[in-house]
Design goal:
By secondary structure, the chain is an alpha+beta fold. The chain has 17 helices and 22 strands. Strand 3 and strand 4 form a beta hairpin. One of its GO terms (biological process) is peptide transport.
Length: 542
């Protein structure tokens, strides 16, 4: 999932996934306190169409206004959602979900198995142009449907009556159960979607809820809206909050001032604030399975297609210094896959297995080597100098990143770097239209497995905007999806990440860990480091 994008398999856990330190059990909820929460996002929403959404901020909203077959609780534990129970066949290729009878949409319609069939078919339909359709890979015929080679109704999902959903897979998918808690697999009400037409998901009035809350006040472009308790939700008795006031705060100083004045119950901290406030009441670090990186438009720019130029750029950036400049809790990246994901076959952190002398030779910080690679690139390209356009968001953190990189490349390599910072939604649009040279972007895992990162740069993936390709990379990604050996699968993913870093297909910058303040009166908020971070279902004000 685009970062500004929680799952764990039976043998894979995300160490970062944890309940917020300021949160606790809802059993002691105080009815005397107004049950209203004021929360923030760092960027504006892009869409509330689950088939088309791609980023963490949208995901937060889906996690609370909608519900899939499974709801992810603390530490990404799978709990019943629209499904009361589920069963996996011995060969792992058939999943049966028993749906909850009487669950309602906010318009009063019943949620049925057909809502899931319609939603899944709509997402994989090439006409929808969902960038997340690749997550259905492994569901019977999904790849062929996305490629336009088979009819949408051949997808391996079937409604056996109103309350039973059967899913047929082409291969065992280790993390499939927990994918069911991710919004791209949520149900959609066909009648409502078709009535809204192209306006579906573009404003609160074009959003239908089957989750704990309903959205109000979002026009599609404004920076404030509310989530209000959904009285048609099947488990409304356990929803304590009456309202969550959401606001976009792109500047940490403004957000902190609002927090101090009691207008916000949570705020992100910049590096300086984090150092000053560490250890104070409400201070906590949210560990995300997230990597910030530079993506190169290799297909468009022949200069950036030169591997030596990309290696020069990487080596000219002091990633440790950059990480702490943006946030005191961040870590310099040594791999594309974020830290905190454990290799189930070895028990080691996956990112540590990717790190070798060969990867560090181009991923580390070395000004002298950077200059050598730049000189080679200029000679190969027949250039005396190179100018690049660097695109980034308009938030405080994003501006710090682009300014740092601009200074590093210009001072070390003598390159000219022209920086453009735009609103998050605009940046996504430009990148999707391939109107960029280099973009400072990020990804947060949808589930606790390296493939959530590594799939992005495989051949044909919609998120591989720069069209980087590697035979070694694609071979190992394919092997990871077809081998029946757990050890072989993880080994293949390690090799893929190493091949990516060694060629600098993208340049990993740092792993995101956000320092925050949360009011101690806020209880029961669940945080997970991958996928949709926040679950307010059982949150309350004490």
């Amino acid at each position: 999932m685009r970062k500004g994008k929680l799952f764990a398999t039976g043998s894979v856990t995300l160490a970062a996934a944890a309940l917020l330190a300021a949160c606790g059990s809802s059993s002691s909820s105080s009815s005397s306190k107004p049950q209203k929460l004021a929360w923030t996002e760092a960027a504006e929403l892009t869409t509330m169409d689950p088939s088309k959404a791609t980023d963490r901020y949208d995901a937060d909203q889906f996690n609370n206004v909608m519900e899939g077959l499974i709801r992810l609780s603390n530490n990404a534990k799978a709990t019943p959602g629209m499904a009361t129970s589920w069963k996996e066949s011995k060969d792992g290729k058939t999943w049966t979900f028993n749906l909850r009878k009487g669950a309602k949409w906010s318009n009063g319609d019943e949620v049925t198995a057909n809502d899931f069939v319609y939603s899944w078919r709509r997402t994989v339909n090439p006409k929808t142009a969902s960038e997340y359709a690749y997550l259905f890979s492994g569901v019977k015929n999904a790849d062929q449907i996305v490629a336009g080679k088979k009819a949408v109704n051949t997808l391996g999902v079937k409604a056996d009556g109103k309350y039973k959903l059967t899913v047929t897979l082409e291969r065992r998918i280790p993390y499939f159960k927990l994918l069911m808690g991710f919004y791209i697999f949520f149900p959609q009400n066909q009648k409502f979607v078709e009535k809204c037409g192209s306006k579906y998901g573009t404003a609160a009035k074009y959003v239908l809820s089957n989750g704990p809350f309903k959205m109000t006040g979002w026009t599609g472009s404004n920076l404030t809206w509310k989530l209000v308790k959904n009285n048609t939700y099947w488990d409304k008795k356990n929803v304590k909050l009456d309202q969550v006031s959401m606001s976009v705060q792109k500047t940490q100083s403004t957000s902190y001032n609002l927090y101090q004045s009691g207008k916000l119950d949570e705020t992100n901290l910049d590096a300086q604030q984090s150092k000053q406030l560490k250890g104070t009441t409400g201070w906590t670090v949210r560990k995300f399975a997230s990597t910030k990186y530079l993506q190169y438009n290799i297909a468009k720019d022949k200069n950036l297609a030169n591997a030596n130029l990309r290696k020069a750029i990487s080596l000219a950036i002091n990633k440790k210094q950059l990480a702490t400049t943006v946030g005191a809790a961040n870590q310099a990246a040594v791999s594309f896959t974020a830290a905190g994901i454990t290799d189930s076959s070895t028990g080691k952190d996956f990112s540590s297995e990717v790190k070798t002398s060969a990867t560090q030779a181009v991923q580390g910080y070395d000004k002298a080597k950077a200059k050598e690679y730049y000189k080679k690139a200029l000679k190969e390209l027949g250039k005396k100098s190179i100018t690049i356009q660097l695109l980034g968001d308009d938030t405080d953190d994003a501006k710090k990143v682009t300014e740092f990189i601009q200074s590093a490349l210009e001072s070390t390599l003598g390159m000219k770097v022209e920086v453009t910072n735009v609103p998050f939604k605009t940046r996504l649009s430009r990148v999707s239209a391939l109107k960029f040279d280099v973009v400072a972007t990020g990804w947060t895992a949808d589930f606790s497995d390296p493939i959530s990162f590594l799939d992005l740069l495989s051949k044909g993936n919609a998120y591989n905007y720069g069209k980087w390709e590697s035979t070694t990379y694609n071979k190992n990604i394919s092997l990871s999806k077809t081998t029946g050996s757990t050890a072989a699968r993880w080994k293949a993913m390690v090799k893929a990440d190493q091949a990516l870093v060694e060629d600098q297909g993208v340049t990993p910058l740092y792993y995101t860990n956000e320092a925050t303040l949360v009011k101690t009166k806020v209880k029961g908020v669940v945080f997970n480091g991958a996928g949709a971070p926040y679950n307010f279902k059982e949150a309350y004000i004490k």
